[in-house]
Amino acid sequence: MTNVVEGTLVYVCIQTPTTKYQSTDKEFKVGIVVDEDTADAWDEQFPKQSAKAAKTAEFKDLYKIDPVFPSEKKQYIINLKKPAQYKDGNPLPEQYTPKVLVPVDGGKYEDVTQTVLPANGSKGKVSYEVTSNDYGTFARLKNVLVTDMIEYKKASTDAAADFGGSTVAKGEEDFSEAPAKPVAAKKTTRRAAEEESEPDSPF
């Protein structure tokens, strides 16, 4: 039977793996907010990989969403990870990397790993495998099923977006409509020109 934990997703770093703490190595990572009972059961099974506790008053500053359990003093976050490369530094083949899935009709699931970024606050389930070694028992990230998707939209890096448009790439004008012929400027008096140039905005 597959091991699964369910809750509210935060920091789903699967499309692009993140850098490990104090390392240059990359890893896939997902955080999932769970209730206290689930966190307690998790800590019993994985004492060296315990759930993180965040004060409810500080949760929104940390995760940019409202507390999942607002009446509780603390919010509990289980972090699941998987290395994005082998020990020799070579990246994992695509077939071994975690996937982000969404349910579709007929009990099937669609792989949206490279097309949709789940934002903090999305709901879902995370599957994991249990491994043991001389250091203890650990859970390793497998896949993510998003049952209630909030899509994350990256901020535009196009300078023209500040003005409600987009920058034309070099060569793109080859496929644009021909510009309209310039209209000859009408002659006007100095006073009329000054009135037309007055801004409508107060600043």
Question: Can you walk me through this structure?
Answer:
- The longest helix has 10 residues, at 36-45.
- The chain starts with a strand and ends in a 6-residue tail after the last helix.
- With 203 residues, it is mostly beta strands.
- It folds into 2 domains: 3-148, OB fold (Dihydrolipoamide Acetyltransferase, E2P), CATH 2.40.50; 159-197, no CATH class.
- It has helices at residues 36-45, 56-63, 190-197, and strands spanning 3-19, 26-34, 52-55, 74-83, 100-104, 108-111, 123-133, 136-148.
Task: Tell me the layout of helices and strands.
Blueprint (H helix, E strand, L loop, with lengths): L2 E17 L6 E9 L1 H10 L6 E4 H8 L10 E10 L16 E5 L3 E4 L11 E11 L2 E13 L41 H8 L6
Parallel strand pairs: 5-8
Antiparallel strand pairs: 1-2, 1-7, 2-4, 3-4, 5-6, 7-8
